[in-house]
């Protein structure tokens, strides 16, 4: 395996986001590109990241599955700057990473065995699909974090609402003018502890796609010209007092 990436800053940011959910991953590198799929230890969320072959300036590989400690990888990737290029090469049980800018720097990361069962994000049915500006989504989640530890995604009479209620409350409402809403009336509640991590990924794209249904997992799809990032989050079902 030998690949070269001319915009390592994007990979660095995504690895940092994923590292907040899991510590070790299987990184697949094959003819389609580089991908990571992982479930957090609490079995509450999943993440899938795809960096397609077209995003690389050099791409030579067979089917490789690399066991990676994300904290170690994150630290190395952070050493790259805006004008850097990144070369990754598998050498035995080591991932060699070269950062090329004014000088050439070398890092070697030991590959690890990961015993956990490999999972894929399941194909689910969703009654509601919302596409909105990522900045609006980020602001709405951050508003809710001020007042509560969970928020509700609601579709009511053609409007999409993100709402948090405790002793205090916060609400953002979107009509068809502010978001693309293809949805049935529904409501589902989600943990803000996870959503605050996911919105860091939303900042990588101008638009965010949300898919959910009544008391149903939430799927968040984020795409730009270089990568695809998806999150799946289980609903938070609680008995009302």
Structure description:
This protein has helices at 8-19, 70-77, 134-147, 192-202; strands at residues 2-5, 24-30, 33-39, 45-52, 58-60, 64-69, 85-91, 94-100, 104-110, 128-133, 150-156, 159-165, 169-174, 179-183, 186-191, 207-212, 218-223, 228-233. By secondary structure, the protein is of the alpha+beta class. It folds into 2 domains: 2-32 and 53-110, Proliferating Cell Nuclear Antigen, CATH 3.70.10.10; 128-233, Roll (DNA Polymerase III, Chain A, domain 2). The strands form 3 sheets. Strands 6-2-3-4-18-17-16-10-14 form a 9-stranded antiparallel sheet. A 5-stranded antiparallel sheet has the order 5-1-7-8-9, covered by helices on one side. Strands 13-12-11-15 form a 4-stranded antiparallel sheet. β8 and β9 form a beta hairpin. The chain is elongated, with a radius of gyration of 19 Å.
What features would you highlight for this structure?
241 residues; alpha+beta; Proliferating Cell Nuclear Antigen; DNA Polymerase III, Chain A, domain 2; five-stranded antiparallel sheet; 4 helices; 19% helix
Q: Write down how many β-strands occur, each being a DSSP E stretch of 2 or more residues.
A: 18
The structure class reads: alpha+beta
Give the CATH topology of the largest domain. DNA Polymerase III, Chain A, domain 2
Distance between the termini: 56 Å
Radius of gyration: 19 Å
Continuous helix count: 4
Number of domains: 2
**Portion in strands:** over 45%
Arithmetic mean pLDDT? 95
Helix coverage percent: 10-25%
Tell me about the biggest sheet? Answer: 9 strands, antiparallel
């Amino acid at each position: 395996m030998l690949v070269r990436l001319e915009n390592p800053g994007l990979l660095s940011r995504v690895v940092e986001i994923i590292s907040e959910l899991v510590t070790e991953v299987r990184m697949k590198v094959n003819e389609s590109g580089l991908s990571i799929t992982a479930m957090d230890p609490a079995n509450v969320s999943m993440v899938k990241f795809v960096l397609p072959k077209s995003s690389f300036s050099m791409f030579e590989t067979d089917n490789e599955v690399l066991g990676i400690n994300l904290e170690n990888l994150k630290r190395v990737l952070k050493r790259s700057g805006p004008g850097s290029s990144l070369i990754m090469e598998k050498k035995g049980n080591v991932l060699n990473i070269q950062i090329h800018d004014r000088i050439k720097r070398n890092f070697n990361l030991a590959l690890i065995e990961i015993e956990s069962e490999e999972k894929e994000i399941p194909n689910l049915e969703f009654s509601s699909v919302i596409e909105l500006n990522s900045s609006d989504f980020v602001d709405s989640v951050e508003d809710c974090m001020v007042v509560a530890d969970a928020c509700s995604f609601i579709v009511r009479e053609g409007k999409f609402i993100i709402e948090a209620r405790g002793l205090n409350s916060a609400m953002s409402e979107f009509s068809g003018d502010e978001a693309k809403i293809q949805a049935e009336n529904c409501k589902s509640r989600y943990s803000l502890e996870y959503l605050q991590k996911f919105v860091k990924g939303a900042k990588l794209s101008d638009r965010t796609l949300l898919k959910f249904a009544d008391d149903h997992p939430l799927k968040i799809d984020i795409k730009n010209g270089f990568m695809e990032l998806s999150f799946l989050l289980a609903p938070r079902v609680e008995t009302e007092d």
